[in-house]
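Lab notebook: predicted structure, single chain.

Context: the supervisor wants predicted structures on file for every construct in the current expression panel, including those that have not yet been purified. This is the next one on the list. No modifications to the sequence; it matches the entry in the shared construct table.
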Amino acid sequence: MTRRILCGVAMAALSMLALGSLVGPARAGDDKGKIDCADTDLGFAVPGYSVECSDLSDSAVSTDHDLAAERVKKLFAIDSSAGLTFLTAVDITVLGGRVYMQRVGLFEEIQNHFDQTEITDWQDVDAVAGFDTAQFVGIFRNGPRLDCVGFRRVVNRQYEGIGREVFGIACSSNGHRQASEALQHLKAPGA
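Prediction complete. Output recorded below exactly as produced.
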């Protein structure tokens, strides 16, 4: 029982450290944490897309009996040549003994991490490029209404939860199909 409580405390602390910086698209002129995408396990090479990567990793957190940390890399790709299509992917790994991320459904994962987006018309669909996926309409705060695909791939399980996963959203003003096509070009661990 004590081990489960420790894991829960570590997970809550790690989640609070990470969530604030995960979801927002890269802002022009904001170089904080910006890294070369070659320094990540994420890749996206499609003509017409501008791609940026960030390291959002946080320092260690004490769990009274151990230390825990997280390694978080984010890829943001956008093409606005014909409408708007973008993809945000997050690769998160929990580091430390006896700590893990809790398993939640795909809807909860997307809703919790992309809190600037109102999600409507959620519908689970077939996997795309090895990712669990669902289609939805995303209504962005102070922004457009776009057709989106939420996605997630569990890379490795750890204890009663997850040790590493890749998740995110791909959205397009040109429909769910174009968002899914963008996702097909994402190179990520676990494939």
